[in-house]
Design a protein that fits this description.
Layout lengths: L1 H5 L9 E2 L28 H13 L6 E4 L3 H8 L10 E5 L9 H7 L3 E5 L18 H9 L11 H9 L19 H9 L4 H10 L4 E2 L6 H8 L8 H8 L26
Parallel strand pairs: 1-2, 2-3, 3-4, 4-5
Helix pairs in contact: 7-8
The protein binds NADP nicotinamide-adenine-dinucleotide phosphate.
The site of NADP nicotinamide-adenine-dinucleotide phosphate has 22 residues, from helix 9.
Length: about 270
Amino acid sequence: MALALSYSPHSYLSPYKTGTQLKLDAGEDMFPLDESGMVIPSNTDYLDTWEAMEELVDCGLTKAIGISNFNHDQIERLLRKPNLKYKPVNHQIECHPYLTQEKLIPYCQSKGISVTAYRPFGAHTLNPGDPILLEDPKIKEIAARHKKSTAQGTGVGWRVQTTFSSQSLEIEDLNPGDPILLEDPKIKEIAARHKKSTAQVLIRFHIQRNVAVIPKSDKPHRLEENFKVFDFELTKEEMETLLGLNRNWRDCLMAQSVNHKDYPFKADY
Ligand SMILES: NC(=O)c1ccc[n+]([C@@H]2O[C@H](COP(=O)([O-])OP(=O)(O)OC[C@H]3O[C@@H](n4cnc5c(N)ncnc54)[C@H](OP(=O)(O)O)[C@@H]3O)[C@@H](O)[C@H]2O)c1
């Protein structure tokens, strides 16, 4: 927190959220991994982490605190915590038409917790001709040295960064059949009807569900494009079409954490 503030132009962060409820071994690595490439957990209870975060509010270091990647049972447990001082104001979850979160979103909203959708484009966003990180010859060479595969299909940078940061190489394979949101014909069709890009439709989808959305780009023209989503409206039928694309496909599976006691994605929602 102190580190985050030292880079921030503000005197407080608002809101501050738990990176995840998966508490990991303390140390220099953000994602400490064992030899088999699985995260090394700590025994910390996320309710204790929450208490520490409540102190940040009391100290005036943040105005509000939130959560990310919790399932509904974990939220219930947090809300029922004896002496809970502050409720989470926001829940940040992966959401897009292939993972519509039709139970978790209304549940959070019914509890007064707003929802933010991350990975709105499913991260499969390469244009034809773009370099494919996981096919980079240098990465392939390192992978071969470790007798590991480079993932097939389009590249997902954070996975590689995550694993490199811990000096091991456990790249999760993307399946060749993984869906590509930005190339979905039904979404393209809706976009064409509104003279908008598929990315803009994917952003608008959340706005009409009363969900905040945080697309990421390092390209000024795309940042600009991603803001131009307030001058059109998807029809009820179009929203239903988008919701109908759900296949409970998750890009951020956090597969290295599946054995963690608090791994959230085995629950129905
Ligand atoms: N809480 C969590 O566990 C969690 C997990 C993952 C991500 N997040 C957060 O979610 C936010 C979203 O980032 P994300 O990486 O998950 O996924 P994302 O926004 O779905 O995808 C980012 C990718 O989309 C591309 N892109 C952006 N605008 C585009 C457009 N208009 N047309 C085509 N491609 C476009 C970007 O490429 P260019 O840069 O080349 O434009 C980038 O490769 C970030 O703030 C991230 O920190 C949170």
